[in-house]
Amino acid sequence: MNAEECVKYCAQAWSEGGFALEGLKGIIRIPNLSPGYDEHYFENGLVYKALHYMADWIKAQNIKGCKITTFEEPKVEPLLFVEIDSTADHEVPAVLTYGHLDKMPHLDPAGWSEGLGATNPVVRGNKIYGRGTNDDCYEGFLVITAIKYLQEHNIPHPRIVMLMETGEESGDDEIMRYLPKLKPQIGEVGVIMVLDAEAEDYKTLWCCKSLRGVAMGVLEVQHLATPCHSGMATGLVPDTFRIARMLVSRIEDEQTGEIKLKEAHIDIPQSRIDMCNAIAKQLGAASVEIVAPIKGAQLLDTDYGQLLVNKAFKPGLAVTGQSGLPIISEGSNVIRTTTGLKLSLRLPPGADAETALAAMEKELTRDPPYGAKVTFKSLGAGNGWFGEDFDAKTAAALEGASQEVFGQKPLYYGEGGSIPLCNTLQSLWPKAQIIVTGAAGTDSNPHGFDESLNIEYTGKFAAVITGFLGEISK
């Protein structure tokens, strides 16, 4: 394969007017949210609009040997299933690719920069902005870019099976029910590519070697039967926010952020600590630039290697939502009856998420202070994932493709986010090589305001995937 020609082709596909970028713009304009964030998910038709948009776009690319199936059952998250026949003249193990079409909430429009918006795809410089640009709507367009190049240049490629689900941001329960049923049709798989991870910089290919798990739930504290004037009630009864704060302190040290649940910790392999330190040494401050503290605010540590260990291999708690607290302009001088907190506990790979969730619930609900009514509603748990080393052929193909495009080998890291599906894929195809990678840079702000995708890097990333698919078909 002519690497220079391939890079140019992919760059054009991911430039203004290019077939891939224009395709991505179309799906950004569809405001389809993940089912956990859209109570009318099955009724408003948006998920089906996104599903059929993607299917129609793939069909329009005239890929040889391409069969497109949409699974649409009542009250079941739909799935896009694409099969592309091998063009190799000998038997080559199939490649399964994974991505998702659902999106996170748009957030307050005022939080987006001027001229930008969740459903308004705008290209500025090297980036395209909009919800779903990097998480994860670009995946299908990128895979098809690679296949188009290979077919148009008569370069053999393996059989490709593309899975695009529509509920990933709300948990992977639905696709985990689809996969066992689809396994006979998918057949044996040599490589699985999960294209839903980040790139630590834009200078090479990054492959994720581990993912954290997650345990989520809603803590609710009730004390008063009815609200009461704060001047009359303070000193007589506790505020429910204070009780909630006391309970959360049972599982997290508020001074250090250390998680107190032993079930949420693992013995971190030294090899993974060394990996984090190596990345920190190479990237320095850039290794943690995914976060942007305000002027004067500090990170949890001054050692970048330790910060990467924290992010990938230690548990961490976030309060991601609340109920019972009015906005400031509507807050009156009363003690409220109830405080609810949505808790997200990230777990290191190797920790059992269900066990950690049970320990979390036990600590939060035992011996309620002041006899308050305390409940904890589980929102689910998913295990993290430890990736195995690649076999020689896969490693060589990745290295060769990365060298051709970026001039250096792939680099490996541990991811702080979660893709529980990886464990299911590994159990269903235990011999497959699982490559978790992606084009979302640390400055791409997934789930947040001004979510973006660096299209210059995405073009190069597409060229690497193209080269890899061509190489493993030899």
UniProtKB/TrEMBL annotation:
Family matches, as Pfam families: Peptidase_M20 (PF01546)
CDD domains: M20_dipept_dapE
Keywords, ordered alphabetically: Hydrolase, Metal-binding, Protease
GO biological process, one term: proteolysis
GO molecular function, one term: metal ion binding
Name the UniProt record assigns to this protein: Clan MH, family M20, peptidase T-like metallopeptidase
